[in-house]
């Protein structure tokens, strides 16, 4: 997929305030400091489309971007903030959960996982919740350039092994580096093929 246009649409504090759900939507989520904004910017060939920060938890709203005038890319607040109060964390979790479960044009959720770490409980629990809730999702490993190739491969395989304990078939898995733009084309190809399928089958999200 060639990215011709990618423009910010709006930020929403409630899922009901999101743009009209009339075109396909692909959302990105991960725990704080997973490199979500950097990956989005790399995919869109735009260095500051999504705001990056050294402070975990910078994304506190649902941010929508219109890509190629035909689909939405959604930047969701992260889960598992370590440096915010429990009440604020609960608000984030409620916002994320309501969006994921109620947004009828959400075609796929890309769950970002930091490849530098062994399987994290918080990631495993979120992935499990997606499966139990019937949410279509893919797993995206980030920051593979920060590791030696063999170490990155081992961590990804460790995740697969852990997931296979409760999953018979794993979702699509992508291995990425925002720095080197690795994996970006594969994700965009998936989105393009999915959009083509929806068009071919006359799938409409409007009431």
TrEMBL record:
Record-annotated EngB-type G domain positions: 22-197
PROSITE patterns cross-referenced by the UniProt entry: G_ENGB
One of the GO biological process terms: division septum assembly
Coiled-coil annotated residue ranges, if any: none
Transmembrane segments: none
GO molecular function, one term: metal ion binding
SUPFAM superfamilies noted in UniProt: P-loop containing nucleoside triphosphate hydrolases (SSF52540)
Pfam families hit by this protein: MMR_HSR1
Stored InterPro entries: G_ENGB_dom (IPR030393), GTP-bd (IPR006073), GTP-bd_ribosome_bio_YsxC (IPR019987), P-loop_NTPase (IPR027417)
Cofactor(s) essential for the protein: Mg(2+)
Family: Belongs to the TRAFAC class TrmE-Era-EngA-EngB-Septin-like GTPase superfamily. EngB GTPase family.
NCBIfam families for this protein: GTPase_YsxC
Task of the protein: Necessary for normal cell division and for the maintenance of normal septation.
Protein name: Probable GTP-binding protein EngB
Gene source species: Chryseobacterium taichungense
